[in-house]
Amino acid sequence: MKSTSLGYVSFFVLVATAFASGCLKSEVIDEANLSSGGQSPTGGGGTRPIDPLHEGVAMRWDAIPSDPVESGTVVSSSSGGGPAGDSLYVTFGRNVAFTCGTSPFAPVACPGWSVGFTLPVELQHPGSISLDDPRINATSSESFPNEGVADASCYFGGGSFFDGKLEILSFDDGFLTFRIDGAPVFAFDANGEHQVPICN
Fold it and tell me: Cα dist. 72→6, 99, 105, 165 in Å?
C-alpha cells in the first residue's frame, strides 16, 4: 500500500471538496485502506457495530443456500462429501457483502478480498490451530485493479490460505471473535483480530 504525504493531502483535499459541493454521501470508501488488516471488537451484547467495509458471517454449513457458485465452480452444501452440516463456515473480508441467508461464496467486488475457513464442532471453542490444518480448509479470494492498464480492468485471484495461525478467542452473544497471526500479506492483510456475527 502506497502511503505518501502527497497521497494523504490529495485524499483530504478531495473529501473537503466533495463536502463543500454537497455531493458526498454519509459513507466514504477510502480504497487506499482496503488492504488493511482486522478490526478490534467494540461495544457489548448483540448490538456491536460491524465495520461496513470489513464484513463477515459465521454460517452453519447446512444453512448455506444450495449450489453456491465460487469463481465458476459449483459447490453443493447439500450433497455428501463436504463438511458436516453443523460445521460453521466463517468468511470475512473488505468491500464484501456477506449476510446470513446468502451464499458466502459470492465473488468479491473490485477492489476487495475475503478469507474463509470451516470450523467443525470439535473446534468451536477458544483455542489455536494452524491455518494449514485440513479440518478448516482455509482459502482466500481477492480482486484489485490492474496497475497501469488504461481500461481499469481488475485481476482476480485466490486459493489456499495455509500459512499462519488461527486463534478462536470467543463465542459470545451471537458473535465469533478470532485472531489470525503469521498469514502472508498479498495485496491484502488478513492478520489481526476479527469479529463476525453467528447466523441463527
Answer: 41, 21, 10, 29
21-67: pLDDT as tens digits: 333 222 233 334 444 444 433 333 333 444 444 579 999 999 998 75
Helix (H, G, I), strand (E, B) or coil at 130: strand
- For residues 13 and 76, membership in a common domain is answered with no
- pTM confidence score: 0.68
Task: Please state the three-class secondary structure of 22-79 as a single string.
Answer: CCCCCCCCCHHHCCCCCCCCCCCHHHCCCCCCCCEEEEEHHHCCCCCEECCEECCCCC
pLDDT tens profile 144-170: 988 877 777 898 889 999 999 999 999
User: How far is it, in rounded angstroms, from Cα 98 to Cα 114?
Assistant: 10
Residues 15 and 111 placed together within one structural domain of the fold = no
- Give the pLDDT confidence score for residue 67 in this predicted structure: 54
HSE value, Cβ hemisphere, 13 Å, CA-based, for 176: 29
* Averaged pLDDT of the chain: 73
Same-domain status, 29 and 40: no
Residues 6 or more apart whose CB falls under 8 angstroms from that of 148 comprise none
Same domain, 104 and 20: no
- Whether residues 116 and 27 share a domain: the answer is no
Domain encompassing residue 111: 36-197
Q: How many domains does the chain have?
A: 2
- Which residue, among 113, 104, 97, 110, has the nearest Cα to 51 in the 3D structure? 97
